[in-house]
Amino acid sequence: MAAPDGVADALGAEPLSVLDTGSDCGDLLIEVADERTVRALAPDFAALARHSRRGVIATAGAADPTSDYDFVSRGCWATGCC
């Protein structure tokens, strides 16, 4: 799906792809360019809260494909954790 208007500004990064988890969960899963982008996010929590029922998850592939992990993610919830 296309990113809802204002999500890129609220997240602080340009989405590559967006998945709505649906009514059961109520999250937006947003793929961003790279691990550095995920780690550098400075989201506007109040603005993000207007785009999902529960929160927004930003994710990207690991910077080093030989590392002990495949991807990184951050969850930005209405309560502020990210």
Write the layout of secondary structure elements.
Layout lengths: L6 H5 L5 E4 L6 E5 L3 H5 L5 H5 L5 E7 L9 E7 L5
Parallel strand pairs: 2-3
Antiparallel strand pairs: 1-2, 3-4
What does this structure look like?
The protein is an alpha+beta fold and 82 residues long. It has a single domain (7-77), classed as Diaminopimelate Epimerase, Chain A, domain 1, CATH 3.10.310. 18% of the residues lie in helices and 28% in strands. It is built from three helices and four strands. The mean pLDDT is 90.
- The proportion of residues in beta strands is 25-35%
Give the second-level CATH assignment, the architecture. Answer: Roll
Order of helices and strands: HEEHHEE
Strand order of the largest sheet: 1-2-3-4
Total domains: 1
Approximate shape: globular
**Distance between the amino and carboxyl termini:** 23 Å
The profile of the biggest β sheet is:
4 strands, mixed
**Alpha-carbon Rg, integer:** 12 Å
User: What is the tally of helical segments?
Assistant: 3
Number of strands: 4
Helix content: 10-25%
